Amino acid sequence: MTLNAARFFPEGIRRWAVTHVGLALFLILSLTLNGLLIWRALYWQHRAQDRMAAQSADPLAAMTVLPALRGKHLDGSEAVVEFAKSGKPTLLYLMSPHCGWCARNLANFQALVEQGRNRYRLVAVSVTAEGLPEYVSKNHWTPSDLEVVFDVPESAPKAQDLMATPQTLLVSPEGKLVRRWQGAYTDSQGEVEKALGVRLPGLGD
To answer: What pTM was estimated for this model as a whole?
Structure first.
């Protein structure tokens, strides 16, 4: 037997039920949507706070004023790289004679030295002295083009950050870190070329 709703529920009650059920569904949908929007806003707020906290904890974050970098030159003399007193931007390259990715990126760095010697103060920091004199001689690096520093103490901005090679840091004449590229220029070659105004040959084998 089929029940006839019209028989048991007058027209006015049916309209009232339809209207209020619709309003209830609309209210539930609105509350759900508002909840999602609030959750999304809180999520991105927390993400932004996490990024700011990470940057504040990173001594090599962009626009950080870098302290003087101390170490040694190959002739045994003390090396003091004071970024804020160079009079021009400093290009700091972190490398090692035994680093495979440094070897692949060597042609790019050589191009930076050739094209940037008149515009940047060029400093190569080696994380080891082993094999460094031979490496410098083989690549024909002269003090007039490139300052080579090693034996940087662990107090320099952050030891673990300076141990990863290769890295390229661009520091302003005021001593502030402008850009930082970690690793060889696998995906960043175009960005490095644009930022530094150079043309690079790309990675070697």
So the answer is: 0.69
